[in-house]
Structure formats: structure tokens, C-alpha cells
Amino acid sequence: MKVKDPRYDYHITVSAHLLLKTVDNQILMAKRPETWEWAPGRWGLPGGKIYQFETFMDAIKRKTRQELGFELMPDGLYQIKQLIIKDKQAFMYFFSAKYEGQELTGEMTDYKWFGIKDLNEFPSNKFAEYFYKKMLSEFLVKDAKLLPMEVVDSLNYIKLSDTKNYKDWFEGIINKDYDPNKVADFKKWKKVKK
């Protein structure tokens, strides 16, 4: 019997965040409600955790609708941060979008536009993330290079599971007859292989 490698036994969090920028080079920060579990009362970017089986684009639409009061699609991917924390890792994807004057009516406590001077003068311990001051300053100062949204490709294997090509591929992987009920829960793959 194969022993499970403990190096793979940890929790992963994936989140999508939005760098919403004005034409005069300011970025939107939102004050998190005091009731939130992570960094209550601190200033952060719109966005958050991606639900299980949710695409990046669906998460961005959902989070901007909740936190800003309107849906928004990003122009490109700016950066990915990997945070290595005891017993878990977090992958934070930062997307960029242009602000076009929409009214801010979301669930956040307050909103503020930060320019370079504001970022430099703002206390680091008031930000929701340790690295925000440096990352946001670089984003505003440098001519930020964005990866086009085409590089963000969400493949929904659950939806693909009904296609013939996917079934053929999956049967080749597990050397068994395809059963879509077992594919829906990827944790059951081990059982499928037996």
C-alpha cells in the first residue's frame, strides 16, 4: 500500500483581487467590516476567496458586485502572490481594471482612493495584507505590465465530463470505465482507481 506523502497534506486558499485604477493614477482601497474574520477594520483591495468550482471571472464578478455594488471585468492579470504560512498556502491573483465612475454601493465600511503619496504616508499595519504598500506603489509608479485575460483559462472538468473527448481521456488515466458520478468529487479519484 502506498503511503501518503505528508508534503502534499496542507490547506490551499485561492483568491482573486482587483486593482481598480483611475485615469489620474489612484487605486481604490476598501475598509473591511469589523465583523470579517480576516483583517477586520483594515484597508484592502476588492476581492476574496474563490468558491469551490467557481472560475476566476465568476469570482471577480461576484466579489465586485458584493463589495463595490457593480460587476466589473478586469483588463489583465498583474501579479500572483504565493503566501507560505504554517500548515497552509495561499495563492492570491491580482487583476487590474480601469475605474469608469461607477457609484460605490457595496458592503464595505468605507472606500478611499490612494495615490503614491497616500500609500507612502499610510501606516502599513492598517492594510489587510503585509505586502500591499510595496506592491501597490510599484503598480502605480511603474508602467504595470499586464498579462492578457486569455492566459487565465478555467477548465471546468465537471462540465467537461459529459463530452466524449474528456471521457476518452479520463478512461485512459484510470484504466477503468468512465463514471461521471465518481468524477464530480475529485477526492474520490483514489477510490475510482481501485
UniProtKB/TrEMBL annotation:
Tell me which positions the record assigns to the signal sequence: none
**Domain Nudix hydrolase, first and last residues per copy:** 9-137
Q: Which UniProt keywords apply?
A: DNA damage, DNA repair, DNA replication, Hydrolase, Magnesium, Metal-binding, Mutator protein
Q: Which Gene3D superfamilies match?
A: Nucleoside Triphosphate Pyrophosphohydrolase
The terms under GO molecular function for this entry are:
8-oxo-7,8-dihydrodeoxyguanosine triphosphate pyrophosphatase activity; 8-oxo-7,8-dihydroguanosine triphosphate pyrophosphatase activity; 8-oxo-dGDP phosphatase activity; 8-oxo-GDP phosphatase activity; metal ion binding
EC number(s) on record?
Answer: 3.6.1.55
- A Gene Ontology BP annotation from the UniProt entry: DNA replication
Cofactor(s) needed by this chain: Mg(2+)
Q: Name one Pfam family in it.
A: NUDIX
UniProt xrefs under InterPro entries: MutT-like (IPR047127), NUDIX_hydrolase-like_dom_sf (IPR015797), NUDIX_hydrolase_dom (IPR000086)
Q: Which reaction does it catalyse?
A: 8-oxo-dGTP + H2O = 8-oxo-dGMP + diphosphate + H(+)
Family, similarity comment: Belongs to the Nudix hydrolase family.
Q: Which protein, by its recorded name, is this?
A: 8-oxo-dGTP diphosphatase
Give the source species: Candidatus Woesebacteria bacterium RIFCSPHIGHO2_02_FULL_39_13
